[in-house]
Amino acid sequence: MTDRWREYVEGSLDKAGGRLAAAFEDWSYMQPVLTRIRRRFPRGARVLELGCGAGLHTSLLASWGFDVTASDNDTSVLEVARETFRAFGQDVNVVEVDVTDLPPDLTGFDLIFSLGLIEHFDREVTVELVRQQRRAARVVMAVVPTAHTHHAAAVTDERLYDRAGWRQIFVDAGVGVSEAFVFGDLPTRTAAVARRALPPSAYRLVQDRLTFGMNICLFSEPSP
I need a labelling partner for 174 at 20 to 30 A (CA). Which of 66, 124, 127, 130 fits? Predict the structure, then answer.
């Protein structure tokens, strides 16, 4: 599993044409999410990414002045992330963490976030993961795929819910949701027609109401 995950992470960088090209593609796609993080939290806020992969997101957040920690449960993947931080000249703390068993001393973060992670577990486990993360941070954020993810890759062990279903998972974990939105245009003719025919605000409403997009992003309400 370790070799397969590292090969996937490194293969994604190579496919894009290297770290810089991969970063451009990643940051462009994730712009709605990354922009919200930048607006919601002040410089110096403590941020932890669970399942950091190649470290592209944490590199950008560090460049914006956040106190960032990158984590993964795979030491070989963490080395890929360290190579990214060195390449981009960013000072990022790196820790080995199992998302299913967060250390009790891993606390005091303003934000914990994950991208494409918590959907790989059964529902009751996912609820507990969100609950654990809330104990470690004031705000929990997750990006998860929708049922349309088959347009990008074959569905394997992902548990796929609509926007309302993910909101309910947060609620069942005792965590309120301050925002849940759908992003990532579908590569279909129907989506292309809708984008041309509707004003941007109406198209975004359709995306949210019908989970008509590739991903869902959820921000929890801040804890007191």
Answer: 66
pLDDT tens by residue, 158-185? 999 999 999 999 999 999 999 999 999 9
Residues 137, 21: Cα–Cα separation, whole Å: 32
**What is the four-CA torsion angle of 9, 10, 15, 19, rounded to 10 degrees?**
100
Establish if 158 belongs to a structural domain: yes
Q: Considering the domain boundaries, does residue 47 fall inside one?
A: yes
3-class SS of residue 187: coil
